[in-house]
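Section 5.1 Outputs to date
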Amino acid sequence: MTLPRRKFLHLTASAMALPALSRVARADTYPSHPVRLLVGFAAGSTTDILGRLIGQWLSQRLGQQFIIENRPGAGGNVAAEEMIKSTPDGYTLYMVPPAVAANAALYPHLNFVFLRDATAVAGVVRVPNVAEVNPSLPVKTIPELIAYAKANPGKLSFESAGIGTASHLAGQLFNAMTGANLQHVPYRGDGPAMVDLIGGQIQVGFATMTASIGHIRSGQLRALAVTTLKRSDALPGVPTVAETVPGFEASSWFGIAAPKGTPADIVALINRETNAGLADPTIKARLDDMGGMALTGSPADFGKLITDETEKWGKVISDAGIKAE
């Protein structure tokens, strides 16, 4: 059967419009089924805790489950690659850890470039790290720590949750800016690192506030300073490292990303609902207790943070010759 030309053109135009219409429909009805939120670290990690907190909020707000899937490995790269290779439809998201800013320099042969292949969706929180010591070490301030380290070269070690983690890079930056020459001892996560710091096998740490604050409040560790530019309400009276070492800043920050090509209206929806969560009194209280500072803002704001931090830590890693395990 031969179609009249006018009807043929009408049907052709309708067919060409279908992909656009289906994209709009997906965005308008999103989410219509559960969403995966990939976490690149084990359950109980700071990234996991924050992912579950914001995931529960998004589940309540959007009427579908945001399911946390832990995919630990290679400093979060296993989960990041899985997210990047997924369909960009908003149903696979990634809980961005601070490690993404270091991984490009630590792992030069990755199958992806995070800044190119991922879409920043929303910031969640910035958490200070804490410059802290075992109480047996006879120092109570950052100037005393620097002086003690220089007077006892090679005798002080600092722990980290692993090579390239925020606690490692904070200690490395401290060494570079002060000449303290603390020896790095990497662990597989904050848990075992804190055990040895509390036990005295390691003298110094730069762990996240989340991992540290309970031990500081119990007296098992002594806080010398926080690593953000501003003091933290969670540790009133504790100064910043920058008050002694001008310009020092080495915090842990977290947020949400999606694959490149995810529809802009879905990105905007998740961003809007995440910002609403950060203003919720219950979530705000949880973040405050962790010493966290909400990272409200647009997707572009979070994207700029990732870009700036990638440049900053890439230089630190390059200058120090740090290599991934």
